[in-house]
Amino acid sequence: MGEWTITVSTHLLAGDEKVWAHVVSMEGVNYELTPWVRMSVPESARGLTLDLAPRGERAFFSWLLFLGLLPFDRHALTITEVDPGRRFLEDSTSVLQRSWRHERMIRPAARGCIVDDRVTFVPRVALFGPATRLFVEGIFRHRHRRLGARFGLAPP
User: Fold this and answer.
1) Which DSSP string do the residues of 122-148 spell out, in sequence order?
2) Which helix (H) or strand (E) holds 149?
3) Pairing state between β 58-66 and 37-39
4) pLDDT tens, 110-120?
5) What is residue 155's predicted lDDT score, i.e. its pLDDT?
6) CA separation for the pair 146, 18 (Å, rounded)
7) How far apart are CA 125 and CA 134, in angstroms?
8) CA distance 138 to 143
9) Which helix (H) or strand (E) segment is 97 a member of?
10) Which domains does the chain have, with CATH numbers?
11) Burial category of 23 from C-beta neighbours within 10 Å (exposed 0-12, middle 13-18, buried 19 and up)
């Protein structure tokens, strides 16, 4: 079936509540993705946060825009589980991905918090798996660098 998984973790200096408020907002998602990708948000979903999205049903369709301009995928965003302040699980599909499962967890730490992302996906075209994995891992490493820029990175 060609399932691929990537994981990325980052220890941030900010508290988990502050980071949670950022990561569940579409403004926060787009901050993390900039400048490489932007997700469109329909007018009807403006202000919606992922933790308040309906569970198990499509919240909205979003265009993924390369460099914020060029559409390259259309994503059907579906949130299936939320543990407020700690975790959300997205089970979505898109034109390019037969399945897209993104789990984000925020764990309190002695100093700040740790953000863990686990993304498992199945490309619609199996041949694209290796390239998609490189792209997805690169985007999520970029997202974590952006989180570090916003909230500060804990020393290793």
Assistant:
1) EESSGGGHHHHHHHHHHHHHHHHHHHH
2) helix 129-151
3) antiparallel
4) 899 999 999 99
5) 85
6) 15
7) 15
8) 9
9) strand 97-108
10) 4-151 (3.30.530.20)
11) buried
Backbone angles phi, psi at 28, to 5 degrees: -65, -45
Residue with tokens 């984000």: 104
pTM: 0.94
Residues 6+ apart with CB under 8 A from 16: 85, 86, 106, 107, 108, 112, 113
CA angle (115, 119, 124) in 5-degree steps? 160
The band of 156, judged by pLDDT with boundaries at 50, 70 and 90, is: confident
Question: What is the chain's length?
Answer: 156
- pLDDT, one tens digit per residue, over 59-112 is 999 999 999 999 999 999 999 999 999 999 999 999 999 999 999 999 999 899
In one-letter notation, the amino acid at residue 115 is V
What's the pLDDT tens digit per position in 20-39?
Answer: 999 999 999 999 999 999 99
